[in-house]
Amino acid sequence: MKMLRYATVLSGLVILLFAIGFIFQIQFATNLWPWQDGRYSYLFIGSILAAVSAAAIWIGWTGEFGALPAGSLNIFVIAVTASVYFFQLARNGRPELLPFGVAGLVSAVVSGAAFLWSRRLPLSEARPTPTLVKVSFGIFVASLIFAGGALIFRLPIFPWKLNPDSSVIFGCIFLGDAFYFLYGLFRPRWHNARGQLLSFLAYDLVLIVPFLGPIPTVESASLISLIVYVAVLVYSGALAVYYLFINPQTRFGS
């Protein structure tokens, strides 16, 4: 089990490296993305990778593999839906995207196996998830399903212009994230919520400052979307900071 902990921490650090690459648009990372994209899309990808790395490093560091099923389910849903889209694009005259479909399929198999293995492991933490966190998770699930479906249908709900293919992939990511929080609702134990809050905090820290800057200059058509997006970042960040670092019953070391 110790070697598995080391491997999980190492994988989290590798993912963090690629998160930094996307955040700062370094070629070793952005060249892995299947098409050219814009600054905010790369920031979004970096924020998602930062969220995954935060959860992986925490699970590996603490050895709390009973909290792994939520993240595994998240990746499984993303991998399955994204691979279907890549295979569809490859079939419709873009064969260069076939390797991405195969990679998604492999990721689905690995994450599915990790989910089936880890869901049998007990959680070492018996404290229940706080009520406000459960209510917030329910709101997040509904919002992510709505936003994910809209992105898959390429509706302009993001506060920046999206590549149509990126819109579908980002929608797949949001649907996977919905299952991430949904698992925490079905198994409402604090360590099932701590990983989600750590992930959300990492996601928020990457995006909050870059998204605050454009508010005074953004076009009116995108202003409402940007304000809503920033409000979600601020609320989820505040929720994570309070329960992870302030609340005496749930903060680290309590």
List keywords for this structure.
single chain, mainly alpha, 9 helices
Structure summary:
By secondary structure, this protein is mostly helical. The relative contact order is 0.12.
Q: What does the model show?
A:
Helices cover 75% and strands 0% of the residues. It has one domain. The protein starts with a helix and ends in an 8-residue tail after the last helix. Helix 3 runs antiparallel to helix 8, helix 4 packs antiparallel against helix 7 and helix 8 packs across helix 9. It has 254 residues and is mainly alpha-helical. The protein is globular, with a radius of gyration of 18 Å.
Which helices and strands, and how do they pair?
Layout: H1 2-23, H2 27-30, H3 39-62, H4 68-91, H5 98-118, H6 131-152, H7 164-186, H8 190-212, H9 220-246
Helix pairs in contact: 1-3, 3-8, 4-5, 4-7, 6-7, 8-9
| Weakly predicted, low-confidence segments | none
Ends distance: 25 Å
Total of helices: 9
Overall shape: globular
What is the overall pLDDT average? 92
